[in-house]
């Protein structure tokens, strides 16, 4: 109904319509978003707010009755440099949290994928604690302080040498506890700041169906995060307890320490069982939490008691023989944890592949639907990359750059600092993965260049069929931009290579369970000589340095991304994807800004729609927020709402990566809910956005018939390759930004405003 109605030629409307603009990544200013020099805040706060042009300032030629408003949410993901760096180092936790949202669309609740991801997330917390334990308790307290050459010239370590071994280990055990407390504080602070914003009542869902993004409580996971915080702290403290008590069993085995050791393992087992429970299950009755919340509270109390008893038992000053080698049980714990992670990753891959075969997705998916295992594997790889860099750099500092290996025998009198062999494996696997993936990326760029240029040539030939000789250079530049923008579709094989290499790397690292390192395996299997073994040891050293450089690069990237708008936009594309989804897997992941943005947008749109019409306009990632908002609106509001998306990654990225939550069926549901009052603007030069329903390349028919097939509208970019008569340079190539300055954008706004039924709008808020 009213699909062909347009705004009258005089530019006036008989009803008020508000165009509500939602920006994408990188925190665009409200002035830029509104194209107005002076704006005022009409709702919200410093973190996220709604703005309108200030009346009486600047020039506006919008037709009467068509208002404009902007929602600026960029402060939810931006901040000081310190916060930016802290978020970057939470990358492993973010990746594993994202993995569960990349599951195939099967129509069910995800089966074993959720429990497997939550268990894998718990192992990342344990790995984090083990890395801090390796630095504080193993390297410093056990291996270094006991040797005079290591303490020489280091007054900050000399005082530890005068403390008996037991109290020394207990004191240094405060370091991993403090690290866990820091993560707890970050998670709780972000939850209070950005999450727990109640959603407006939405449409009901089938309780037996898939966990859907239109569920009214989908964006309110504060209770789930608190529950996961408690469980992960219990896992972290339980890991610390088992390491401390395992060392005590080696030093002074008594019935008490065996009882405490068994209790610590029981707590870890209980935490694993609770993590397998559904994350969103609730008790019957209003306002109740997860069904196992009481069990979680009891686990927290038991963990506190066991940790205090473990520290009390450790602090008893019973000096054994001088320690030598590594902390007893530490290397085995690292290797066993990696073996558990390898098993979980294999199980997750098999489960995802099985569910992919039953998937209802009607479009091609990244990695054949295995994006979840790829993200989980990347999380494990990043975690051990950071851990290996931390442990080896500290060891390198403590023994004054003399870490023993086959290439560098131990010097007489030097402290024999020995980090776990697993970290050497991780360094070697990381170096191999970086090199192979880099080669695969270069190969993919070269291998697809000819095809991408050929298709780009078809596009520019259609847009600029007969350019004059002086415009050929600009036409070639446009072709290259189009060809580069198409590389996004060519990333699949690179991710496949990374997934295979990472799975092999994690499995090989588990060889440390039987005490086999890279050099030993080389000697036993490949029959290499001493020189080859030395070269392999040097390669592992190089891997450690490369991982360390990557960590330094992340620090530099964090600073640069904060100060440079271009770099910040590139980093934010990936970062905003990971922090868009609720934290239902790992509570230490960066906060979910959508848990505030979506309910806040839904509330604002509902209030505006009760006074007139609303055109929800989302650019780039803002189009994802707009689609999620429409799925949360009450049914009585939807007839007064239209959707305008531009530079949208809804299909190009989200539909293929998260088919269970934003797949093609969900996008069709968005169109149905707004009566297909939806226009999507896209450009061939845009490397991020693209069509939602139609084909991407010329000559291909739309994937679906109308009305979905009429949503997408391609914009020619640039408008011309020749120099205009009143200018000295050809029109610029806009690519991903801006869209709202294009004349066709204004035409789309007016067309959508005309599609909103005036009869419905005139009914007012009492409809």
TrEMBL record:
InterPro entries per the UniProt record, alphabetical: AB_hydrolase_fold (IPR029058)
Keywords: Membrane, Transmembrane, Transmembrane helix
SUPFAM superfamilies to which the protein is assigned, alphabetical: alpha/beta-Hydrolases
Chain segments annotated as transmembrane: 85-104, 116-137, 157-184, 228-251, 257-278, 299-318, 330-353, 365-392, 425-446, 494-516, 536-560
The protein's name: Integral membrane protein
Organism: Micromonospora gifhornensis
Taxonomic lineage from the root: Bacteria, Bacillati, Actinomycetota, Actinomycetes, Micromonosporales
């Amino acid at each position: 109904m009213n699909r062909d109605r347009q705004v009258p030629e005089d530019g006036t409307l008989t009803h008020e319509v508000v165009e509500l603009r939602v920006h994408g990544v990188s925190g665009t200013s409200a002035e830029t978003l509104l194209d107005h020099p002076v704006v005022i805040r009409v709702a919200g706060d410093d973190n996220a707010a709604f703005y309108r042009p200030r009346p009486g300032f600047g020039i506006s030629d919008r037709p009467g009755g068509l208002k404009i408003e902007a929602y600026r949410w960029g402060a939810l993901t931006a901040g000081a440099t310190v916060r930016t760096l802290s978020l970057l180092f939470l990358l492993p936790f973010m990746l594993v949290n994202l993995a569960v949202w990349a599951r195939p669309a099967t129509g069910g609740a995800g089966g074993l994928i959720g429990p497997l991801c939550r268990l894998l997330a718990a192992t990342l917390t344990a790995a984090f604690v083990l890395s801090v334990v390796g630095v504080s308790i193993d390297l410093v307290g056990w291996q270094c302080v006991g040797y005079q050459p290591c303490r020489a010239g280091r007054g900050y370590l000399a005082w530890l040498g005068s403390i008996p071994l037991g109290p020394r280990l207990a004191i240094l055990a405060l370091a991993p506890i403090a690290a866990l407390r820091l993560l707890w504080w970050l998670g709780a602070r972000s939850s209070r700041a950005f999450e727990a914003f109640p959603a407006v009542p939405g449409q009901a869902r089938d309780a037996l169906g898939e966990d859907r993004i239109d569920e009214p409580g989908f964006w309110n996971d504060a209770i789930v995060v608190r529950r996961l915080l408690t469980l992960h702290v219990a896992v972290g403290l339980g890991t610390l307890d088992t390491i401390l008590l395992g060392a005590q069993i080696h030093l002074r085995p008594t019935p008490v320490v065996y009882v405490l050791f068994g209790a610590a393992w029981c707590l870890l087992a209980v935490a694993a069982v609770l993590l397998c429970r559904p994350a969103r299950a609730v008790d019957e009755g209003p306002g109740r939490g997860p069904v196992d919340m009481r069990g979680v509270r009891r686990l927290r109390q038991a963990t506190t008691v066991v940790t205090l008893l473990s520290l009390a038992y450790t602090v008893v000053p019973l000096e054994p023989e001088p320690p030598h080698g590594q902390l007893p049980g530490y290397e085995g714990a690292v290797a066993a944890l990696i073996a558990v992670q390898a098993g979980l990753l294999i199980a997750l891959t098999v489960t995802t592949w099985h569910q992919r075969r039953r998937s209802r997705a009607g479009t091609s998916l990244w990695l054949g639907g295995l994006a979840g295992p790829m993200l989980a594997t990347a999380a494990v790889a990043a975690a051990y990359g950071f851990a290996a860099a931390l442990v080896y750099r500290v060891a390198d500092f403590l023994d004054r750059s003399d870490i023993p290996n086959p290439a560098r025998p131990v010097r007489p009198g030097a402290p024999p600092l020995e980090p776990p062999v697993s970290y050497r494996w991780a360094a070697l696997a990381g170096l191999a993965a970086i090199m192979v993936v880099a080669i695969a990326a270069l190969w993919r760029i070269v291998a697809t260049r000819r095809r991408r240029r050929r298709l780009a040539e078809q596009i520019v030939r259609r847009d600029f069929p007969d350019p004059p000789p002086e415009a050929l250079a600009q036409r070639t530049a446009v072709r290259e931009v189009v060809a580069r923008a198409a590389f996004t579709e060519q990333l699949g094989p690179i991710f496949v290579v990374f997934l295979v290499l990472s799975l092999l790397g994690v499995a090989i690292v588990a060889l440390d369970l039987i005490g086999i390192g890279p050099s030993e395996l080389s000697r036993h299997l490949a029959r290499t000589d001493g020189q080859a073994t030395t070269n392999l040891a040097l390669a592992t050293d190089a891997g450690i340095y490369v991982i360390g450089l990557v960590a330094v690069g992340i620090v530099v990237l964090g600073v640069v991304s904060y100060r440079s708008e271009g770099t910040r936009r590139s980093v934010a594309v990936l970062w905003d994807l990971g922090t868009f989804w609720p934290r239902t897997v790992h509570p230490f992941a960066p906060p979910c800004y959508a848990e505030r943005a979506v309910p806040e947008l839904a509330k604002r749109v509902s209030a505006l729609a009760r006074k007139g019409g609303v055109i929800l306009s989302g650019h780039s990632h803002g189009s994802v927020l707009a689609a999620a908002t429409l799925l949360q609106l009450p049914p009585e509001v939807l007839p007064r709402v239209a959707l305008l998306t531009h530079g949208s990654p809804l299909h190009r990225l989200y539909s293929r990566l998260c088919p269970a939550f934003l797949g093609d069926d969900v996008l069709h549901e968005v169109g149905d809910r707004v009566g297909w009052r939806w226009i999507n603007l896209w450009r061939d030069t845009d490397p991020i956005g693209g069509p939602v329903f139609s084909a991407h390349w010329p000559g291909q028919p739309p994937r679906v018939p109308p009305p979905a097939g009429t949503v997408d509208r391609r914009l020619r970019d640039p408008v011309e390759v020749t120099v205009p008569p009143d200018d000295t340079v050809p029109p610029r190539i806009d690519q991903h930004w801006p869209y709202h300055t294009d004349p066709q954008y204004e035409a789309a706004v007016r067309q959508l405003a005309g599609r909103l039924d005036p009869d419905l709008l005139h009914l007012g808020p009492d409809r």
